[in-house]
Every structure is written in C-alpha cells, then in structure tokens.
Write a structure and sequence with these properties.
By secondary structure, the chain is mainly α. Helices cover 78% and strands 0% of the residues.
Length: 421
C-alpha cells in the first residue's frame, strides 16, 4: 500500500500539481495510513525543525546577493571584461560565455540566475559574429548549469543540510571539478570552431579594451567572490555569515556603479522573497515525505536490497546517475535533491562512497535537470531572451553539452581524486 501511495506522487506531478503540494499530500496520506494521528502530530515538529536550521539563512542571503548583482547590471560588465580577454580566440565569444557563466555562478548560486543575466548579453553578441542559433543558445543554456556546481550553489547547500555534510567542505571540493568542466566546454568550443565554422568573426583591435580597462570592469565581481568564498575557506565566517558579507558587497558594487535605484532594490527584495519562500515550502514538504518513507522503512529496505545484490560499485553508481538523469526531466534540481537523497544516501554510504564526492557528482548530474525538456527552466529563460530563438534551437544546441556533462561524470567516477584529493 505504501508503494501505491508513493506512486501517486508521480501521478500528481504528471497532472501538474506543484511539487510542494504533491509531496505534502502524499506524505499526509502515507502517515495517516501507517500511524494515524500519532504520526500526523509529527508534521508540526518536522515543519519547524526543517526550516529553523541556521545554515538555511544562507539561501535567501545568497539569492539576494544574486538579485542585486542582476538588477545593477554588473553581469554585463563581467561579460564584456572576459570577452575582451579571450574573444580573439576561435570561438572566443562562446568561450567568454562559458567563463563568465562560471564566474557569475560564483555569485548567483542558481543556474536560472546565470541564464537570465548572461543570455541577454552573450547570445546577441554571438549571433552578430555568425555563430549558429543552436551554438549560441546551447552554449549559454549549458554554461548556466555551472551555477549548480560552482559554489555557492544553492542545491549544494540543500544537499549539505539534508545529509548533515559540511557545507564548507562541499564548497571547497566543488571548485576544482567546476573548473575542469569549464575547461572541457572551452576545449569543445575551440575544436568545433576551428574545424567547422571558419567564418566566425572575432574581436578586432578597435573592439579590444586594454588589459587594465578589462580588469577594471571585472574586478568588483572577483573581489566579491574572494570575499565570500575566501572567508569560508579561511574559517573566518560560516556560509551564512559569508552570504551576509556577499549581500553587503553586492550593495557596495551597485552603489559605486550608481545603478541601484529604490525600484530595483524593491525588485531584488521581491524576487528574493518569492524564490526563498518557494524553496522553503518545497523543503518542508520534502522533509515530510522523507519522514513518511523512513516510518515505512523504505530507505532501510532499499539499502538492504541493494547491498544484498552485491553490484559492482561502478555499476551501482551508474544506475543512480541514470535514475537521477531521468528524474531531472520531470523535476527541478532542488526537488530532485530533496526527494531522492534521503532515499539513496544510505545506499551510497553503504557502498563506501564519500558523501562529499557524491554531493559534487550529484550537482553535475543536476545540470541535466535545468537543460532537459520539459521542465528545464534554463531552456525557456534562454529562448525568451532573444525574440528570434525557437525552443527547438536551444534544445538542439544543448545536446553536445549534455554529452560533455555525462563525460565529466564518467571522468570523476573513474578518477575520484579529481574531486577528493
């Protein structure tokens, strides 16, 4: 009966019921069936305990930092600065998009935030230089997924809270694989442009800034990243305190750029409240769902079944990655983390995998969730950024990058020391 109740979750999702309400309905039905009023009383305690973690305060603060940077127009300066450094290379504007997305991901924490800022700047620039619509839109959409991996990733914070894993260590060990993926993307662009699209125009001398002018345009963002992540790694601040530093730094940057008005500040605060509320509601519902499964002994039974199967570790992890990939077609990344991790995590630990390693690889897998239809939000954000784009152009453009993300996961499975070393 409990498995029938859980299966009803997917029915609700297919019918378009919001994730939070789907999880809550299934959880209440399951608890009522198994324990009656006794287990239903626990709902209030779970709702409070799942949202009263001090670490969770970092989520609205990082979202606010991202929104302030967004409305202040600093993202445009960042892209222009990076473009002037490497835009002279074959496919340099596309590579600039990848690098700028990774850097902006370090102050955004969300893939959608990166896509919203970078797409309106980078896609017109690439189209102007004769890149195909597929290449331009696909590069932006796929690169925005780096916001899921590069700290301070909001899904990574959620993973740390759910699994009680050190967020400082997760942030520290996510940087290197994030940079490796940036390198893989840039190498792919360089090879493709070199052999197939010789007509791509590059920056001429009149368009290039001096080194100091380019550095000046990008300097504030890099300082903000160093202040936020550096304070965490140096042990000076917790992630929540570092997020507060980030908000203050973003306000300073916007103030000195003279781009932040009261109207824009109101927009940033409104978006922050909207996003944060949505995430916390989903988190409460997911924690109720996790509690219901644990009462039904589902994670324990699944772990025992998987251990008894005696699968090779690489095959077990491959199955997990494929299952998460499939879930990403239907759910957003944070929902996938909140639903799947409480079920899968005990089995992952039973097979001897490091929780830090698994968390980082999970975030790379979650990049699929934001660039695969029908729920991949970055696809729609990128499409809406340029009127001439069709959704089909964006989907075709991200296909090679999906293969690159999959190759990256395979690489980190074969060489786990690239993450944990």
């Amino acid at each position: 009966m409990i498995y029938l109740i859980v299966a009803s979750l997917f029915v609700f999702l297919i019918l378009g019921v919001p994730v939070a309400f789907s999880l809550a309905i299934v959880s209440v039905l399951g608890l009522a069936y198994m324990g009656g009023l006794t287990d239903l009383v626990a709902i209030a305690d779970i709702s409070w305990s799942s949202t009263s973690e001090f670490l969770l305060v970092a989520i609205p603060l990082f979202v606010l930092m991202s929104e302030i940077i967004d409305v202040s127009g600093v993202g445009r300066d960042l892209f222009r600065g990076v473009e002037r450094w490497i835009g002279w290379l074959p496919g340099g504007v596309a590579m600039s998009t990848v690098v700028a997305s990774a850097v902006f991901g370090a102050v955004s924490g969300t893939a959608v935030g990166v896509a919203a800022v970078i797409s309106s700047i980078a896609i017109p620039e690439m189209l102007k230089r004769n890149h195909s619509k597929q290449m331009a839109s696909g590069t932006v959409a796929a690169s925005s997924g780096l916001g899921m991996v590069i700290p301070p990733s909001l899904p990574l914070i959620v993973y740390g809270v759910v699994t009680e894993t050190s967020i400082e260590r997760l942030f520290y060990h996510a940087i290197k694989p994030g940079l490796i993926i940036v390198g893989i993307f840039c190498l792919y662009i360089l090879v493709v442009m070199w052999f197939t699209q010789r007509k791509i125009s590059h920056l001429d001398k009149s368009e290039r800034f001096s080194f100091f002018e380019s550095f000046y345009k990008s300097f504030p963002i890099f300082i903000l990243i160093v202040a936020v992540l550096g304070s965490i790694y140096a042990g000076i601040a917790t992630p929540t305190e570092a997020a507060a530093v980030g908000v203050f730094g973003a306000l300073l940057i916007a103030f000195f750029n003279r781009t932040l008005t009261l109207t824009k500040l109101y927009q940033a605060l409104y978006k922050t409240a909207h996003v944060s509320t949505m995430l916390l509601i989903i988190m409460v519902a997911a924690m109720l769902f996790s509690y219901m499964l644990s009462v039904a002994q589902v994670p324990q039974s699944l772990t025992q079944m998987v251990v008894d199967a005696e699968l090779p570790p690489w095959l077990f992890m491959t199955i997990i990655m494929v299952l998460l990939f499939i879930l990403g077609f239907f759910l957003d990344a944070i929902s996938v983390v909140l639903i799947s991790v409480p079920i899968l995590f005990p089995s992952v630990i039973a097979y001897g995998y490091d929780p830090i390693w698994f968390g980082v690889v999970l975030m790379i897998n979650m990049c699929f969730a934001v660039i695969t239809p029908p729920v991949g939000l970055c696809l729609y954000v990128v499409r809406d950024s340029v009127p001439s784009l069709e959704l089909g152009d964006v989907i075709k453009g991200v296909v090679p990058y999906i293969l690159l993300y999959a190759s990256s996961i395979a690489l980190f499975m074969m060489f786990p020391g690239l993450i944990i070393s």
